[in-house]
Amino acid sequence: MDEKTAQERIDSVEWYHEFDFGNGLRAVPRTPPDAGHRRIWAFIEEQLSRIEFRGKSVLDIGCWDGYWSFLAERRGATRVLATDDVSQNWAAGKGIHVAKELLRSAIEVRQNVSVYDLASLNERFDVILFLGVWYHLFDPFYALAQIRHCCHANTVVLMEGSVATELGRQEALYNFADHNCEFLPEPDAFRQLVRGAYFTETASAFLDPPDPPGRLGWRWRLRLCREALRGSREGIRALQTPRLRTDNRRMFLTCSPFAGRNELHAYRPPFGLAAYDERFGEALPGEPRR
Ligand SMILES: C[S@@+](CC[C@H](N)C(=O)[O-])C[C@H]1O[C@@H](n2cnc3c(N)ncnc32)[C@H](O)[C@@H]1O
């Protein structure tokens, strides 16, 4: 394929990610790759630089154009399964196929796999990428349970997404009408879901670190001072409404699965999670009772 034809093929796609395919061939995202997206991608890339991909099997959940699947492959993963539910985004799912061809990649692409159906893959992976997805979910706990079913004892699960650090502890917001962010948890609220799904957090990082617990955020204070200096009662009132406590920052968690007593579950947990807790001694579908 000559370069002109290749660029025309690239331009026929509605891209979410930004790719430089070399030889001047570039994928330009539909949403301008403003500082916001680029900062998030740089943050994720920095976190992933600490992860060993060589020789690993990788599951990428909600892969869209496959940017992180290709990175895992480049970094030496031997099997990469890039999954998505294409009905859940505004592109038609073409980008990953064009990118795969141009990058001469061998990743496997399955675009009809919802995070809610992952257990039906019936496969365990060494590394699982769950990046930029949780805040789009209507049922994040069920999704985490499905991810848990794709883990063996040494799986590393990497989760990234939006959190609101100025909500009260363990609070979360749902707004199904907001298609940029349907579910926005405070960091510890999300951590509790993670723990409840039989994962241990081994590391965490924030794109913009939150203020220490118990203090009002410095950004909020700064805005309040600015409104006070302007003498704007309206501005002050607006800052004091709960809506404005919902700042949206990015959190990256590194997690490993565990099996054993989970202090969050006094009673039998749902969604097949009882299989990981010796008190309930249940089996995963298709496995012998423990
Ligand atoms: C913001 S994009 C993130 C893309 C990529 N993972 C990244 O971090 O750059 C959200 C992705 O989640 C996918 N998604 C949303 N709901 C999903 C679901 N229920 N099951 C699987 N994927 C889902 C969307 O199709 C889209 O690919």
Q: Mind telling me the CATH class?
A: Alpha Beta
CATH superfamily, by name, is Vaccinia Virus protein VP39
> What is the tally of helical segments?
8
Helix-and-strand structural type: alpha/beta
Q: What is Rg?
A: 21 Å
What fold name stands as the CATH topology?
Rossmann fold
The description of the largest β-sheet is: 7 strands, mixed
Could you report the average pLDDT, rounded to the nearest whole number?
92
CATH architectural type: 3-Layer(aba) Sandwich
Approximate helicity band: 25-40%
Q: List the strand order in the largest sheet.
A: 5-4-3-6-7-11-10
**Proportion of beta-strand residues:** 15-25%
Overview of the structural elements:
- The structure is a single chain.
- The chain is α/β, with parallel strands linked by helices and 290 residues long.
- The chain has one domain: Rossmann fold, CATH 3.40.50.150.
- It has helices at 3-11, 35-48, 67-74, 95-102, 140-148, 187-196, 218-230, 233-239, and strands at 19-22, 25-27, 57-61, 79-83, 108-110, 125-131, 151-163, 172-174, 183-185, 199-206, 249-257.
- Strands 5-4-3-6-7-11-10 form a seven-stranded mixed β-sheet, sandwiched between helices.
- Helix 7 runs antiparallel to helix 8 (233-239).
- The model has no long low-confidence stretch (mean pLDDT 92).
- Residues 62-64, 67-68, 84-85, 88-89, 114-116, 131-133, 136 line the site of S-adenosylmethionine.
